[in-house]
Amino acid sequence: MVTARAPATSANLGSGYDTFGVALERPADTVTVERAxxxxxDVTGAGAQYxxxxxxxxxxxxxxxxxxxxxxxxIDKGVRPASGLGSSAASAAAAALALNExxxxxxxxxxxxxxxxxxxxxxxxxAHADNVAPSLLGGFTIIRGDDxxxxxxxxxxxxxxxxxxxxxxxxREVVPESLSMADHVETVGNAATLTAGMxxxxxxxxxxxxxxxxxxPARAELITGYHAVRDAAFDTGATGVTVSGAGPSLxxxxxxxxxxxxxxxxxxxxxxxxxxARAYQxxxxxxxxxx
Length: 291
Ligand SMILES: Nc1ncnc2c1ncn2[C@@H]1O[C@H](COP(=O)(O)OP(=O)(O)O)[C@@H](O)[C@H]1O
Ligand SMILES: N[C@@H](CCOP(=O)(O)O)C(=O)O
Description:
It contains ten helices and eleven strands. By secondary structure, it is of the alpha+beta class. Strands 1, 2, 3, 4, 5, 6 and 11 form a seven-stranded mixed beta sheet that branches. The protein has a four-stranded antiparallel beta sheet with strand order 8-9-7-10. The chain is globular, with a radius of gyration of 18 Å. It is found in: Cytoplasm.
């Protein structure tokens, strides 16, 4: 029997659609695997009732198949599904690490990124790796084709999760299919600024680099209270705010001493918009581990 823990993640960071991601120190999923002749799954924890136990509908089923590693897989969800916090990816990353160990497959965590991404195709229609990469590797990650670049960063974050669900599949449908040259230039400048900020663990550069004129405005419309919550975070000291992943969570970057105030203001602004929410005061964290 092998147990692995894999963290929630926040993908895109505004300017890095399908490219950037960070591991969050918390929350996380825990996955336990035991050898079996065919794969079966049970799910407990946050939002378990919304997650299929049929291996064909669960990200971990695709991972077991890709590794040719049938197992009984128990998932304890710390990351609520349809959160924008890489819930489906956290299970896939933990399962990939645990099954690799259980069957002694010998893959490195970096090699497991493409395996875990197969799970994402099951739920969102695309094998985007921008959640599974940071969940497996930790830190700040950049996806380029099949390549992953990883950077250590120490940056404080607030992830504010409202009590509504947005499916990644639906939120991918509102993404524009093309962009103007002006938006392209702005996005490249912001993405480069964010990357420099991560390399320096500089919340000001990271926050400024999160601005995105293309994907985020389209997705903000799917989140009740988005603009008020964003304003509240900036008013209390956030250096940048964006939609986390496909939403509905919002991600704020800040200096460590502002984290509590930013978290409180975001929850309050959601409440004023009639939406319950909780905030994780977190930071860029490490990747999946065997327990
Ligand atoms: N192991 C899993 N953990 C979470 N969600 C899963 C899992 N397997 C399948 N799903 C499905 O994936 C969807 C949630 O994934 P997604 O929309 O990408 O949200 P998130 O941003 O939280 O990852 C839900 O429909 C859920 O039932
Ligand atoms: N790049 C993807 C990221 C989805 O993240 P999730 O946490 O919402 O699953 C996208 O933006 O669609």
